[in-house]
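Check this:
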Amino acid sequence: ALSPRLKVGPMTWQWGFGDLDPVFRQHPEWTVHDGQGQPVFAATGWHHEKVYSQLLTPECLAYNLGQFRGLMERYAFDFIYMDTGQGGVTRFDWRTKWGAQDYDGADLYKGIRDAARLRPGGATFFNGTPRLYSQYADCGYFEGMGFVKVHTWEAMSDRLLLVKLYQPGAKWTMPLYWEDSNLDEFASYCYLL
């Protein structure tokens, strides 16, 4: 790290390829296709780039994990932050009739944790990680503050029940951010944890 108090690491989003990415063009078999054989659109990236869902085949998984290991070896990052865990999202390719299973996702998260551990003290921060994979996170996050209006602590505690069930042992899931308009909600969330 640059200083004892400053930690540096990449923020990444593992489940998509941008249409400007050479890998997307070189390996169309690593992308989820719909019933008409078209790549499944996931989101819009930087500079209006279209991002398509990864299928997470064994070859795609090996490529992704190689990228994470390479980042840690080359740049000596302190952590890896992965946004959006994609819990419950089906990765089934109608063109090849192959689909990623839960254990494929677990292999990805475990591999990211192992890549982070290439550095002494290397950590993982996962956002929206399903319980199946949370054992590989040093810290998990929960986004959504302000999306649902909650007026009482009882309603907040009920809403967070599923998040609480995701706690892997002594680890915590924390809110990622807040705004002035939902500071009370954020504080209630922290108290409830």
User: Anything to note?
Assistant: The chain has a mean pLDDT of 76. The CA atoms of residues 131 and 166 lie 5 Å apart. The first strand starts at residue 11 and ends at 12.
